Every structure is written in structure tokens, then in C-alpha cells.
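Quick one: C-alpha cells for this chain, please?
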Amino acid sequence: MSIQKLVMLMLPVCAASLMAQASDAVVVWRDPGPMASLNLLYGSGGRAHAPDARGRFTFVTEDKLATSPKFDIADQHGVEWKVKLGEEPQSETAASRLMWAAGYFVDEDYYLAEFTVTGLPELHRGGHFVTPGGRVHGGRLERKLKGVERLGTWDWFDNPLIGTRELNGLRIMMSLLNNWDLKEVNNTILQVGGERRYVVTDLGATFGNTGNSLTRSKSAAGEYADSKFIDKVEIDSIDFVLHSRPFILSAINIPNYQTRTRMEDITRKIPRADARWLGRRLSRLSDRQIGDAFRAGGYPREEIAVYSRAIRKRITELAAL
């Protein structure tokens, strides 16, 4: 078959694909329903999708390229999970609960303090989180969902949702959580049915200090509580705090310096009305629900109290704008 004929045969298929993509709804937010009814202990997947800590898990493969130690497992029902170890399992689980309550799309994340994986080999990274018999300590399990296709990444400064209240709310959420790792690679476009969902799919660098490589932290309750949330209030707009610029001696890596510096603009110049909208929605969460977000992340009781008070304080600041 000639190349010309092959191209002619492919044209209708390509055209149909483009038309389908053009008709897809582009979304970043969905009303989660009555706030009082949301179960932040189990999050978007609910109790029905939660993994059984006493269940049978089997090792599938290790992800040797990810920043954090990760590997895939399958449970006794054939459900596949991506396990993350290291500094981020607790913060990512808690952050996903608050993001979901705010109306944003998230992965179905669950934290397990301990679980056993059959056939677990010696890991290239994260082996110190595993004890004999395949006993894994402190893992975030992300449920792999069917019917979800990853289309690529999206840019905070160049996307079809720029200027919308919902995207502005997402920008505020990054500051509310103190998420300092807002690289494009952590943003994913998911195809789900007839929707293209714009999602922040890595929420691990949260609940500590924002800042450069020497000052930033994750899962540091005291540092999170002591950090500033709102930087500047103007008549029509708000600047929220997000420190990401590297210290000056690292400016030799110019691309990284520019990227990290630009990140700070993500939470600036946000319309005051959009900030108030998000704050008033979040203010409907009870203290119990906020605490459940951190209980889901397996934090100790004293840290749950610190985080919960800090979150409530930030929500109150938002709602009062």
C-alpha cells in the first residue's frame, strides 16, 4: 500500500479523534456535595475502595525512576496499587483529603502504617522501610483506577482554565497546604470518559515550610503552624505566601532558579472574591472532619491537633476576606 493511500485511510480516524477531544469537557473542580456529609477519613475512594491492611498483597514491579521510593503491588482481589515510601506518604494522604473536600480531583490515596507484601525483593530504594517477611512500614497506597488515561502534564501559566474561579481556588489550595513543589511534572491531565481533568497528582511536599532547599520541609507540624499564609491584601486581589526561590548561591543552575522563582507567582494576584468563595466553602467543614484528614495520614494525636488548628486558622482568614 502506498504512503498516500495509507494517509488517506488514516485521515477519518485522526479527524474523529480530534473532534472527540474538542468536545471533551475541560474541568478542574466539581462540587463534592454537602460538606457535612464528606468522610475525610476515607476520602474520594470511600471506605469501599480502602485497602485491607491485613490483606494479601503481592509484589509486581519497582519504579526505579520516581523521586520517592515506589513499587506496584496487587491485592487478593486483583486491584493494583502504587506504594510510595519515604517522607511523603502521610502528607500526601492528608492533603488529598482536603483537596477533595474543596472540590478538586485527586488520586484515591490511603495510608497504611504496616502491611505485608509477598514476593517483595530487596528494593533499590526504601529498603529501610521494610523488615523481614516483607513487612512494609509507613506506605501510601494509590489505587489504580480503570478507565483513566494520562494525557500529559499541564502548565500553571498556560492552560485553558486561566482566570476561572476554580483554578484560582486550586492556586490558593497550594498555599493553604504549603505545597512548595509546583513543578509542571506534578500536574496531570486525566481523560475520564468525556472529561479532561486538570489535576495536581503529587501532593507530598506539603504541611511543612515552603522555601529553598535548605529551609523547606514536609510533614513538620510546628513549622507549618508557624508559617505565614497571607502575604498581602489589596482591594481586589490577594497574594498568598509560597517561598520557592533557591538561595542565591544555587543560581548557577539557571533553569532551576528561574523555574523555582516563577513558582512564587502561582499564588499571587488572586481575585479577592475567589479567595472568599473558597474560604466560605471550606468553613463548612467541622473540626472533626479536618482532624480526620490527618488521622487518615496516620499522624500522632498531638500533631493532628496542631495541624487542625492551623488549617482552621487559615480557613477563617480566607472566609473573612
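The chain has one domain: 24-319.
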